[in-house]
Amino acid sequence: MIANSLFAYMVVAMLLFSIGLLGVISRKNIFVIYMSIELMLNAINLMFVSLSNYHHDMGAQVMAMFVIAIAAAEAGVFLSLIVVLYRRKKSLDSDLFRTLSQKEAA
Amino acid sequence: MMDILFLLLSFFAILGAVGMVSFHQPVHSALSLILTIIALAGLFALLSASFLFMVQIIIYAGAILTLFIFIIMFLNVKEANLPKEPNKTMTLFLGSIALLPLNFLILRAFYKMPSAVIPVSEDFGKIKPLGMELFTHWLLPFELISILLLVALIGAVVFGRKEEA
Q1: Which candidate, B3, B8, B14, B104, has a CA 20 to 30 Å from the CA of A82?
Q2: Collapsed DSSP state (helix, strand, coil) of residue A59
């Protein structure tokens, strides 16, 4: 009964999305920030799939696959950026990314 | 039966997400994110999206997060290299209060929608109809995604190479 109502899935997806947004705005560790972004993408995927089941339309599942592909591309670029930052600064503090905008501010 | 499965899977998904946000060590966060990903794969299976269930486990839990844990262990982060977050609990608490109105607004919009009564057809979400949909209606976005992956690959190589001089 609960398992085939759209609202229950939406509650789970919105909770996951809010936890991800919370992680992005309140943590300083860039690993945790990256994982929160992944969590938000996953919550949106859950929304896509449950709406696809609700409307009997396969297009939303194709869109969820695209989201997974974009997450994979993002993982590659983000992880190499983290490696470069850690190699230079020896820290995982996201405030150090400020030096990308101003030359040697820190 | 389906209800119990749904409640268990969503409980584990939310538990893993909360752990991911609040753990201090990045390895613990990554492990609890894997719990969330696998629970979400179970939810996809409940929604009769069998192909996405496999893709979620193989690509997310198998490839992306394994790469991620590999990078964390490769960097060998010590306690001194982690950023100090003295008032983390306070900001998490205040942020969750600030996000309540957003949740309320969106969930109220979904609460008004009528519940689905017609069950989906037999081959819904299987690999063959999904592939038919992907290669007929979504061919151009599919090709664009492949170009995006190529660009991301080149970008990762450019960032990661050793600097000259």
Answers
A1: B14
A2: helix
Q: Nearest CA to B155 among A77, A74, A83, A87?
A: A77
If DSSP codes are grouped into helix, strand and coil, which group holds residue B117?
A: coil
Contact A52 B96 (CB under 8 A): no
CATH of domain A6-100: 1.10.287.3510
CB of A106 within 8 Å of any CB in chain B?
Answer: no
Residue B112 gets which letter from DSSP?
T
Query: B120 to chain A, minimum CA–CA distance in Å?
Result: 6
Average pLDDT per consecutive 10 residues, chain B (165 residues; last block may be shorter)? 90 94 91 94 91 92 90 84 82 90 89 76 85 92 95 90 66
Of the candidates B129, B124, B111, B109, the one whose C-alpha atom is nearest the C-alpha of residue B47 is B124
Considering the domain delimited by B1-78, tell me its CATH architecture: Up-down Bundle (1.20)
